[in-house]
Amino acid sequence: MSPIALNENEVEFIAIRAQGAGGQNINKVSNAVHLRFDIAASSLPEEIKAKLLAMRDQRISSDGIVVIKAQKHRSLERNREDGLVRLRELIAAAAFVPTVRRATKPSRSSQRKRVDSKVKRGQVKLLRSRIDE
């Protein structure tokens, strides 16, 4: 399946304060981003929208809005990119279609070989036993 194109105009970014201690650097390195993406209003294909809405993921609200908080990096721009990467991964997980397993049967000759090897192994074990006179 081809990669799903994500229109960045549909993604809303809100700059927030990151959690954790800051000290003297609090104004320089406390950048975090809330990324909000409305699934229903997006330009994604309908089947992917349905799969996303059906996913049991804590980042997807009951209103169908994906909220991702990115605060891994010190810079706001890198956090923004990290949030977009995580959103793309979420969409890719919804777009993934597992291959259907086809049931197969072992061939008759392979079944016969298996049984013959079991019989042979049993004979070897039988020869190890004590000989009674």
Describe the protein.
There is one protein chain. The protein is α+β, with helices and mostly antiparallel strands and 133 residues long. It has a domain at 8-95: Double Stranded RNA Binding Domain (2-Layer Sandwich), CATH 3.30.160. Helix content is 41%, strand content 16%. It has four helices and three strands; from the N terminus they run βαβαβαα. It has helices at residues 26-29, 46-54, 76-95, 108-128, and strands spanning 11-17, 31-38, 65-70. Strands 1-2-3 form a three-stranded antiparallel beta sheet. α2 (46-54) crosses α3. The radius of gyration is 29 Å and the shape is elongated. The N and C termini lie far apart (72 Å). The mean pLDDT is 86.
In summary, what is this structure?
The chain is an alpha+beta fold.
Quaternary organisation: single chain
- The low-confidence runs, each spanning 5 or more residues with pLDDT under 50, are none
The main pleated sheet reads as: 3 strands, antiparallel
- How far apart, in Å, are the first and last alpha carbons? 72 Å
Strand runs, count:
3
What is the general shape? elongated
What is the element string, with H for helices and E for strands? EHEHEHH
Q: Counting H and I runs of at least 4 residues, what is the number of helices? A: 4
Instruction: Classify the helix fraction into a percent range.
Output: 40-55%
CATH topology of one domain: Double Stranded RNA Binding Domain
Structural class: alpha+beta
Please compute the radius of gyration using only Cα atoms.
Answer: 29 Å
